[in-house]
Amino acid sequence: RLQYPVNIKRKDVRMAKYIITQLGGPNGELAAALRYLNQRFSMPDDKGKALLTDIGTEEMAHAEIISSMVTQLVKGASVQ
Description:
mainly alpha
């Protein structure tokens, strides 16, 4: 279950192409999540580790929402 449910009723492959850029790439949600989760291992105190874990987990939730949006936007579209 998504934190913020996505319910797209109409396919739009062009929009999916734009939205998927938010998922990958150097400034995408996956990159941000990996940076936060990776930085937690060098954090000297437990509060900092916990904070970075929470932020990284939230970024993963964003990636899940974006993935759900792209899936709904391309559902039923042809390969062409």
